[in-house]
Each structure stands twice: as C-alpha cells, then as structure tokens.
Amino acid sequence: MKKGFTLIELITTIGILIVVGAITFASLGSRKSTTDITATDQQIGSLLRQAQVDAMEQEGNAAWGVHFANPSGTTPFYALFQTSYSTATVVGGLYRLPPTVAFVTSTLASGATLDIIFSSITGASSASTSIKLYMPKQNTAFSSTISIASSGTVTY
Q: Least packed by Cβ within 10 Å: which of 47, 103, 110, 118?
C-alpha cells in the first residue's frame, strides 16, 4: 500500500482553495468601499462640527464654513474655510473624495458648489440641507446622508 494523495484529491483541494480565495477577495473589496464611504461621512461630519465650533468661539473674529465642490472632470472635494471660500482662506487643505465615493447629483449637481457657513456665537448654519454620498461602481446601492439643520445640528 502506497502513501500519498491521488490527483483527484489534489485537484479537488486546489479547487476549493480557489473558490474560498475568490469569495474572500470579493468580500474584502466590498468592505473597503463600505469603509471609504463611512470614513468620508465621518470626516465631513467632523469638519462641519469644527467649522461650527470655530464660529461659535469666534476664532479669528471671522465666519467659518465648509465648501463642497463637485467639479466636472475632476475629483469632488470639500474644505474648511474662514470668512468666505477662496483658495487663500482654506484651512487645512482640500479633502478629496475617495475614487469609490461620489456626491449624489440631486444634492450637489455636477459642476456645482455649496458653502455651509456657521454663525458666530449661535452656531446656526446658513442653509438647511442634506448632502448625500454614494458608491457609483458598486452593484449594491450603498449611500449615506449628512444633514445640516438651520439650527446648526449636523447628523450623519
């Protein structure tokens, strides 16, 4: 009697490993996209709250806000700014959306911009609006909504 594995046993084992590996790889890719949208959601929420706190504390004796831009042909971005939005008033740089995440065009159309400015002392926002994010390349419709109330309440 010989010890060892038959060719059929080896092919079956390799086939099972390939199937398990493919499922794991697909699952990890989907998880990264989900993590991207969740992290972006949290970062935007934190930046909005930072602008609100800076405005309420009258930091630099200026208004504070967050600028959202969905330019055509380039990566969408958002930025914290002081006084009014321009490249000179941006604090901390531009935050670009990951390639797996985009603004829903019904909340921020292609080529459009939106500034949310918070009032000194009260922290009320200049607009009551929602900004939606989604994953355009995913087969499943996974999205997230960031809401800003006129009172200044930020939820996501």
A: 110
